[in-house]
Design a protein that fits this description.
By secondary structure, this protein is of the alpha/beta class. The chain is built from 8 helices and 7 strands; from the N terminus they run βαβαβαβαβαβαβαα.
Amino acid sequence: MRDLKGKVAVVTGAAEGIGAGIARALAAHGAHVVIADINAQGAEALADELAAADVRTLGLHCDVSDRTAVEALADQAFDAFGHVDIVVNNAGVLPPIKRVVDIDERDARWVLEVNVLGVLHGCSVFGRRFVEQGSPAHILNTGSENSLGLPHTGAGMYTASKHAVLGLSDVLRNELPDHIGVSVLCPGMVATRLAGNVRNRPERFGGAITPARDGAQHGMDPDEVGRRAVEGIRRGDFYIVTHPPVIELAKERWLEISAAFAAQAPRFEGDESLDTRAQIRRLRRPSATNPG
């Protein structure tokens, strides 16, 4: 999807931060943008900022943890523009920093319902429509450096959620037809107010609180992350990475895994019989006696 002019994109969690950066980059390429966020006022303000003669925008409220709300978002986007070509499942939250043994279950549910179910809802709701639509489309899910390794402790549920986003995206790209691309964005520290999302935490997850800190002040500019994300969409990349040092996290993880296999489960002749992928392919292959 090299040419984005006239395409229609829906971006969740787009009132500020990475989502806003992606929305700005899409609009700069001539795409029409639906800006969705739990902060409706912020979504509408950015929509007004980005509107131009050849770019239409729409700011909408959406709580991605609610599938019904995501269905309504899709309905509004398709009704307004007639089609959607790109969905960016970017909405995410960061709970208060705590050790795993001290995590509050309401914090855990909040993170999982927004960061994981929110992405699932977007993939499912828009993915089904993309299949039916039949034209080139793209799904971008926002992961994190926490998807690739362990940058720091104290964010157990956030890290678990971002591992889930990577896993979900990897399966998704192998299930969808070829006309639908899938990417996972894995940025490092970005100058956003992610920690400030606790101000918008719904009552069912413990309600709003004042954040202990208000974002990463020394991270990458979210507009730069947005530009890199959109270039990744245009190239059709699966992994979209932005921060060079994050490769060290991935290397550390892989080296530890590789060492474990070398010590505990080295390859041996005939071990193909233990290959899960080969077994599944064999089970799915029609037999000569039962081709159906």
